[in-house]
Automatic annotation (TrEMBL):
InterPro entries for the chain: MTPAP-like_central, NT_sf, PAP_assoc
Official protein name in the record: polynucleotide adenylyltransferase
Biased segments, Acidic residues type: 555-571
Domain of life: Eukaryota
Organism: Malassezia nana
Keyword list, A-Z: Cytoplasm, Magnesium, Metal-binding, Nucleotidyltransferase, Transferase
Biased composition (Low complexity): 34-48
GO molecular function: metal ion binding; poly(A) RNA polymerase activity
Length: 588
């Protein structure tokens, strides 16, 4: 059972902190002007930046604190409103009724950014139509033509049916109107259950640490759009790809990790391979929100610090020629040759579809441009003599030119980083015990998911409070549970540098969970949103105390060694890089 996370748990700073989005967001508002830098401060933060600019460089601590507050102000106009969520949910229900003319049990479910917590204002919608295949089976192409004709007949949408595309879809669009003052665009596909699981995975991550994860993802998406770096058809990376970059960075680059690796945490109950395989893909991840809401990271870096380090890492430290990002693995990186991706310029493995490179669209010129923009961002944000609001406004200035041509004399030479990363390439996660081949059609919940609030102090939090503020120490006697590949607890092996820290789980009896913002009027509690039925049943009845007791009984077991890495075809045997981490000293 997935318990919702509210401000009282997900925003306390210990700190805890969809398949591919089909199109970049459109009609975004402009970034706030630097002159409006002082507005909309968070509770307990210092006042607006007023007066003359600093006479010289300010301290790193003040610079990153100012950057955190500036990001709060910057993102406010880009967040979807409650009205937008309600309007799009009403549209989803309208289209669902049309889909039920095809089959009375058809479901129309949301996936992508509007359902996973990483949507910007006026984002496009992605919908998946699940049609039971009883009686005479119809192909996706036939379903596209049939539903497209119904939408064209009964609505005022402009409809483009693509039945012969590699993935048959329906693209619909409606111009701005009095009730919706923005263009509504929507793509409808059929029976793409892996995309729904992907959405559920990202939504679970979004609930763990909204002030840092969601804010960082949303800013990177705004930056990529304004710098024209998020158009796969021109040779750059999709918004979904940038989301995975941020998750990889927070999960595998930062030490201690900001986020746990949900695909590496064992299930509370035994699962068979049949339980976790869906359309040939392993879609297992740990989604018990009741237990995850008790998790706290040892990483206390603020949002401003994380933003600076994100751009610094991908501008100079990530090895673009050698490494492929594999978020689901323990180390986060595998060699490109693992999947035969040596010819690809940028490689990001999809969390569930192991042979699918999310960044396959990135060309040589595209990577040259993207990395150049990473370098520009890193240089700009490192300037401590300019106010943070001005830096963010300049960073997201609209870029008019196209891709920068990469040098012809040295193929991929620009992609060789200084390679100072501490990463170790671990064996890939073997197939573990996703969903039964046939699902009940109510296995997924409703579509639009109201994300947790980005910037709000937890109830009763003593001032000052801001995203990234150091938390109070845990109560005396609060048990701590941790996991490492060796099977030792975190407290037993915290000084052992042989492997990356996994996560720490504080079980605090009686800790308030707080509400999760759910769409008014929607059927079903938020805990049922997009959760597979088998997981809901398997995890029913689990409580933090039950979970703590179960983990205590198995604390001495080698949880991760139960996976038979020898049977996997992606095993590596590489030693950790002995060189110091480029992020060990974050102060320029």
């Amino acid at each position: 059972m997935r318990a919702p996370v509210g401000p009282s748990t997900s925003m306390r700073r210990q700190p805890r902190t969809p398949s591919e989005e089909s199109a970049p967001e459109t009609s975004m508002p402009p970034p706030p002007a630097a002159s409006a830098a002082g507005s909309a401060r968070t509770s307990g933060a210092s006042g607006p930046e007023t007066g003359p600019p600093p006479a010289g460089p300010i301290s790193y601590e003040r610079h990153t604190a100012d950057m955190t507050r500036a990001l709060v102000d910057f993102l406010a106009p880009f967040l979807p409103t409650d009205d937008e969520y309600r309007q799009k949910e009403a549209l989803r229900r309208q289209l669902r009724e049309l889909a039920r003319h095809i089959h009375p049990d058809a479901q129309l479910l949301a996936f992508g950014s509007m359902a996973n917590g990483f949507a910007l204002r006026y984002s496009d919608m992605d919908l998946c139509c699940l049609v039971p295949q009883d009686g005479e089976a119809r192909t996706a192409s036939e379903l596209v033509e049939e539903l497209g004709a119904l939408i064209r007949r009964d609505t005022d949408f402009t409809v483009l049916s693509l039945p012969h595309a590699r993935i048959p879809i329906i693209k619909i669009r409606r111009a701005p109107a009095s009730d919706t003052p923005y263009e509504v665009s929507c793509d409808i596909g059929f029976n793409n259950k892996v995309a729904l699981e992907n959405t559920h995975l990202l939504l679970t991550y979004a609930r763990l640490d909204p002030p840092r994860l969601r804010a960082l993802v949303l800013f990177v998406k705004v930056w990529a759009k304004r710098r024209k770096l998020n158009a796969p058809f021109t040779g750059t990376l999709s918004s979904y790809g940038y989301t995975l970059l941020v998750l990889f960075f927070l999960m595998h680059v930062k030490q201690p990790a900001v986020l746990p690796n949900l695909q590496r945490i064992p299930s509370d109950t035994p699962l068979t391979r049949a339980d976790v395989m869906l359309d040939g893909h392993n879609v297992y991840f740990y989604d018990n929100m009741e237990a995850l809401s008790q998790w706290h990271s040892d990483n206390t870096e603020s949002l401003g610090e994380l933003l600076l380090d994100f751009f610094r890492y991908f501008s100079r430290d990530f090895h673009y020629v050698r490494d492929a990002i594999s978020m689901r693995t323990e180390g986060g990186l595998v060699a490109k040759e693992t999947h035969g991706w040596s010819a690809d310029f940028l490689c990001i493995e999809d969390p569930f579809q192991r042979g699918y490179n999310v960044a396959r669209t990135v060309t040589k010129d595209g990577l040259y441009t993207i990395r150049g923009e990473f370098m520009r961002a890193s240089r700009l944000l490192a300037n401590r003599s300019v106010r943070a609001h001005q830096l963010l406004a300049e960073l997201c200035t609209e870029r008019d030119d196209g891709l920068t041509r990469a040098p012809d004399s040295a193929t991929q030479r620009h992609a060789h980083a200084r390679s100072r990363s501490l990463h170790r390439m671990y064996p890939a996660t073997p197939d573990m015990p996703p969903l039964p081949s046939s699902l009940p059609w109510d296995a997924y919940g409703p579509g639009m998911s109201f994300p947790p609030p980005l910037f709000a102090p937890p109830p009763g939090a003593p001032p000052p409070w801001w995203p990234g503020a150091p938390p109070p120490p845990p109560p005396p006697g609060a048990p701590e549970l941790g996991y490492r590949k060796s099977g030792r607890s975190h407290s037993e092996s915290s000084s052992d540098p042989s492997g990356p820290q996994q996560f720490r789980l504080h079980m605090q009896a009686g800790e308030s969970q707080g509400p999760f913002l759910s769409p008014p009027g929607l059927a079903g509690p938020p805990s049922e949103t997009l959760v597979p039925d088998f997981q809901r049943l398997a995890l029913a009845g689990q409580t933090p105390s039950d979970y703590a007791a179960w983990r205590s009984e198995t604390a001495d077991d080698d949880e991760f060694s139960t996976r038979d890495d020898a049977d996997d075809d992606e095993v590596f045997g590489m030693s950790p890089d002995p060189r110091p981490s480029p992020l060990a000293d974050r102060r320029p």
